[in-house]
Amino acid sequence: MSSSSQTSPLQVEQEARAEAETNPELYQHFANLVSSLPSSEGLSHNQFYRHDQGWYSGLVPIVGAMVADACFTARPSDIVVATLPKSGTTSIKSLLYATVHRREHHLATAADNHPLISVGPHGCIKFFEYQLYTRNRVPDLDKLPDPRLFATHLPFVSLPRTIATSGSKIVYVCRDPKDHLISQWDFANKLRVMNQLEPLSVETAAELFCAGLSPFGPYWDHVLGYWHAHLTRPQQVLFFRYEEMQKDPAAHVRRLAEFVGHPFGVGEEEDGVVDAIVRLCSFEHMSGLEVTKSGKTDLVIGTVENSSFFRRGVVGDWANHLSPETARRIDAITAAKFMGSGLVLASNGQ
User: Fold this and answer.
1) How far is it, in rounded angstroms, from Cα 231 to Cα 172?
2) Residues in domain Sulfotransferase (predicted)?
3) What's the CA gap between 284 and 286, in Å, rounded?
């Protein structure tokens, strides 16, 4: 095993920061462009701007996405986790990192030294638009060993263009729209309180959601973009349903490993490696870690307590928050948008 394959996420980050190229002109160019776009209030704590490809988000993430598109050079060995916010992002990051790096971070001996335990999922797999292409910097990502792991909330159409052309692997997780809405509303209110803003009522959040004013655009467009990409290029885009992952995480870890080219051997299966990964990445284990309870993640939108990323994603929890009328409205929009696509949401039992 080469020494580069043993580089920790923290070391890589330090090297990338030390050798990053300062590029304020590029950021300013895109910031000026985004500032001229239509804007609106949205399901967030800041003003939304409309990306020219049809989705809304805060100014800074859009600028980061544009810089990433202009500067990022993908490799065929890259693996990108793609989700809408609050759709199982932390979970899929944990499972992917533990699966891909299970040999250099052996689960039986890693103990507190495992990167997921010491720096957390968002320190192990960083977002393009929130952590890498930020603060007037174009990071030097060539130092990262293969396979490089990245994350994004961007719609498929807005991914850095070299990802699609290089053949990089994309792992997408879709969640029931009503449960996604409730988790997004809860997280948005935490950020609003942190920024001394009044929390949104669930009714207001639902109105914004139905109007498509969610971070990174309408739920339905985002999901369908990756669903159609999965149908047309299944060897490149893996599509998971959050609810099915919750029911059988071990089966999904096996699918994930096979898809990214790191399948489990017979010996690993006999040694219970799959179950060990599931236990390591479980909500019960991850939420109890010190890095989760007291750690923080530096995002371009501000420093966020790691505990904010850990909300037990109980399937069907929307019923405790949404009125029957609102639930029916969201179901009707979903049925109309997904009609003819072949996409089935497991939680709806369709």
Assistant:
1) 13
2) 76-341
3) 6
pLDDT in tens, 172-228: 999 999 999 999 998 889 888 888 889 999 999 999 999 999 999 999 999 999 999
Burial 142-151 (b: 16+ CB within 10 A, else e): ebbeebbbbb
Alpha carbons 58 and 39: distance in angstroms, whole number: 9
User: Which residues are annotated as catalytic?
Assistant: 153
Residue type, 309: F
Q: How many CB atoms lie within 10 A of CB 316?
A: 11
Domains, the chain, ordered by start: 3-341 (3.40.50.300)
Note the Cα 267 to chain centre separation in Å. 31
Polymer length in residues for the chain: 350
Backbone angles phi, psi at 32, to 5 degrees: -65, -40
**How high is the pLDDT of residue 350?**
35
Residue 231 · residue 73 · CB < 8 Å: no
Which tokens hold the place of 208? 């914004």
| Cα separation, 345 vs 350, whole angstroms | 7
